[in-house]
Amino acid sequence: MKALALALVTSLVVSHTALAQTDSVPAAPPPERSTKSGIFSADQAAKGKDVYLGQCQSCHTAASLTAGDFVNNWNTRPLRELFTYLVENMPESEPGSLSKTQYAQVIAYILQLNNMPAGEAELAAEPDSVAGIKIDLLPTPSLPSPMAWLNQPVSRRTARHTRR
Fold this sequence. Notes:
Elements (H helix, E strand, L loop, with lengths): L1 H21 L10 E2 L7 H14 L12 H7 L4 H11 L10 H14 L19 E2 L19 H6 L5
Parallel strand pairs: 1-2
Helix pairs in contact: 2-5, 4-5
């Protein structure tokens, strides 16, 4: 009987150990980053403004980079697409003539123009490095507080519950 109990316990321990070794929890996908998560530094955006003033402003006003067509064309798209587009098409007179660092600086400036927050680190100067970042240019809608009704005068809160 002791031998049977020992064999059973040993069998359970071995099978549990084997299951523990093969039963792994899949890793959660990394959270999606957006342009609202401080993906560029303020210094990088300042340098981008200088590049913009020297290379971009003659064709693109700052206003054209913050509204209408720009937002409609780029909002919700991967930042990598904007980076690649700029490298391949801008400046129009000499596409690809800026360094990758300068393109990243211009993007940082454009994001700053669109009220995106600066962070501590600079935006990477390679399109592949920004592949997991989504362009999010629209303001986050604020939802009313679930307790907002408490801010109404008592007469308004009770009026809708009384019959007339």
